[in-house]
Design the sequence.
């Protein structure tokens, strides 16, 4: 019998970018019943890994490299996912539905998922390319930074956001002399309340970190390598510089293919892009959040939940994405957990005393919890997240009263 050449081949899915969202997407696609071929294209030399420990326990040397990987070595081949590492996707040909790789190969797809993440924003002052200037995004970046982390050395941290402060905390713990330069007037200004900024500033100073707020770095100098940093008109000696000034979405593949991009690949609440055969999830996307505004989130929660929603939509079971965003940060022995997105106009309710190093800040909007920032207060975070999701009204006086258990504040 001659082979039936008319036989329909299996539907193929290609995923570009092998990080947190991609790993989740592979798992969800299989769990949702997709049994066709999946090809995962990643430019890094590693299978998908989690980044949060990179600036925390892993940098401190208290987290083994093997634990970074989201799935074991043989997981991807075991579920029939072809993992192409050290392979950069160069272009998307939408008319023929093919992904062009840098080496010229072309991968046909029926459905495509873009999980390209975000890249670090580069410092562009004079001297920014000197040896000794570090960024923190990948395992390779930590390896480079680790080698420079020697007790007594002076590190200038550019940027008082999460990454900069987590590195500052590790560096202080490891005996380096740390100075943090932050252009704004408070730490983590874009992410947390002024109460939290003040608390964390005091904690860093207690640990011996020098903070320079309202101080942008103007120049980095040295003979072939970092020797000093000029900021706010003053010169500070430094052996290492760590830059943590935010990220920019990796959207160029999508933009060049003509997909809608606005500081992020624009997706709908099913993670679908402006092309009906292409979805996108994670740091590279911009979506309409649960409050109705277009947002770009750079966190594990969004990478995981959006990837799950992309997989559902790609397997024909779309579900509206409207999860409560959550985030965490570890600095010293302080576990900060945040749920929801605060606004400056929210009413603030503080629960617990910051001096006890266990407290939380609730943000109320129209009498309901809109966001919670909890420091060493996991129950406040968990209940707060639930109240946000349910849109429950709370009595601010009861919320502030630590004599009432958090789970008994409502009801
Ligand atoms: C140091 C650090 C600490 C963090 N800490 C926290 C934390 O405490 N809590 C939290 O919620 N979030 C944290 N984050 C953020 C979190 O890690 C990201 O939100 C998450 O990794 C996003 O997942 P993603 O899949 O969108 O992107 P990524 O995990 O970044 O993966 C994207 C991948 O795509 C690859 N890629 C891009 N373009 C191409 C191409 N053309 N071809 C092939 N491959 C390509 C990239 O190289 C990358 O490997 C941290 C991030 C960093 C860097």
Sequence:
């Amino acid at each position: 019998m001659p082979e039936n050449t008319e036989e329909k081949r299996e539907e193929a899915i290609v995923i570009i970018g092998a990080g947190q969202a991609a790993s989740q997407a592979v798992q969800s696609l299989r769990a949702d019943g997709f049994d066709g071929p999946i090809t995962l294209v990643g430019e890094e030399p590693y299978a998908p890994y989690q980044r949060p420990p990179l600036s925390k326990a892993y940098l401190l040397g208290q987290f083994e490299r093997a634990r970074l990987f989201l799935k074991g070595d043989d997981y991807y081949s075991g579920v029939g996912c072809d993992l192409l590492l050290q392979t950069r996707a160069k272009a998307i040909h939408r008319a023929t539905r093919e992904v062009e790789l840098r080496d010229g190969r072309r991968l046909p797809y029926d459905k495509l998922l873009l999980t390209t993440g975000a890249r670090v924003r580069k410092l562009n002052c004079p001297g920014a390319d000197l040896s000794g200037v570090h960024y923190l995004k990948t395992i390779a970046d930590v390896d480079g930074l680790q080698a420079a982390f020697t007790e007594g050395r002076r590190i200038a941290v550019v940027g008082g956001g999460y990454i900069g402060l987590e590195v500052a905390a590790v560096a202080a713990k490891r005996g380096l002399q740390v100075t943090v330069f932050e252009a704004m007037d408070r730490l983590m200004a874009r992410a947390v309340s002024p109460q939290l900024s003040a608390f964390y500033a005091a904690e860093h100073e207690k640990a011996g970190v020098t903070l320079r707020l309202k101080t942008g770095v103007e120049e980095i100098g040295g003979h072939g390598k970092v020797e000093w940093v000029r900021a706010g008109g003053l010169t500070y000696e430094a052996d290492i510089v760590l830059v943590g000034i935010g990220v920019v979405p990796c959207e160029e593949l999508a933009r060049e293919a003509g997909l809608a991009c606005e500081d992020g690949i624009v997706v709908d609440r099913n993670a679908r892009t402006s092309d009906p055969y292409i979805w996108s999830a994670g740091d590279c996307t911009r979506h309409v959040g649960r409050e109705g505004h277009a947002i770009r989130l750079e966190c594990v929660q969004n990478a995981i939940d959006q990837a799950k929603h992309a997989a559902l939509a790609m397997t024909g079971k779309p579900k509206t994405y409207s999860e409560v965003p959550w985030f965490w940060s570890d600095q010293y022995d302080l576990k900060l957990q945040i749920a929801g997105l605060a606004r400056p106009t929210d009413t603030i309710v503080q629960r617990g005393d910051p001096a006890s190093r266990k407290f939380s800040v609730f943000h109320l909007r129209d009498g309901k919890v809109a966001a919670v920032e909890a420091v060493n207060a996991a129950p406040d975070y968990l209940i707060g997240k639930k109240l946000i999701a349910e849109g429950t009204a709370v009595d601010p006086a009861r919320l502030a009263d630590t004599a009432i258990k958090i789970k008994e504040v409502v009801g």
Q: What stands out?
A: Residues 16-22, 41-44, 51-52, 54-55, 88-89, 115-117, 136-137, 163, 250, 253, 282-284, 298-301, 303, 327-329 surround flavin-adenine dinucleotide (CB under 6 Å). The chain has three domains: 13-119+248-314, 133-245, 333-408. The longest helix spans residues 300-314.
